[in-house]
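User: I've been trying to design a sequence by hand for this structure and keep getting stuck. Would you show me what you'd pick, starting by listing the structure so we're on the same page?

Assistant: Good idea, let's start from the same input. This is the structure you sent:
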């Protein structure tokens, strides 16, 4: 049950991002990118030393990011075996689908074999300057 409770905020976030906002002058169309960064590299070493450079790239490229927190996940690998990993989930937005750019950076920085980047069209509130 505690695992289910930890996933509830993420599920609610995805549901909310998937709902189109009414087209108004103070909203803009964006693409929300949800992705994970592994805690451990393929060679077994910690990924933490590489995270600051990755986060700097996110801030420079997208203007910012949100680190949603630590979690864990699992999937079937190429041989049908279940693999699990501890990871950190991130969210960033852009005016276009940048999933290929993010996936390429995940491969470059963390050696991920198959990066998973979820992209959702969304509306974002844009504060008007006075």
């Amino acid at each position: 049950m505690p695992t289910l409770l930890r996933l509830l905020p993420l599920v609610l976030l995805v549901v909310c991002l998937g709902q189109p906002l009414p087209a108004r002058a103070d909203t803009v169309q964006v693409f929300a990118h949800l992705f994970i960064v592994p805690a451990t590299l393929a060679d077994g070493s910690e990924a933490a030393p590489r995270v600051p450079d990755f986060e700097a790239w996110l801030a420079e490229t997208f203007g910012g990011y949100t680190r949603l927190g630590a979690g864990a996940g699992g999937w079937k690998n190429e041989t049908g075996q279940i693999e699990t990993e501890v990871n950190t989930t991130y969210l960033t937005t852009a005016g276009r689908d940048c999933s290929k750019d993010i996936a390429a950076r995940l491969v470059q920085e963390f050696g991920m074999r198959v990066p998973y980047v979820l992209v959702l069209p969304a509306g974002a509130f844009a504060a008007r300057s006075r």
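That's my pick for every position. To get oriented when you compare it with your attempt: The chain has three helices and four strands. The longest strand covers residues 82-94.
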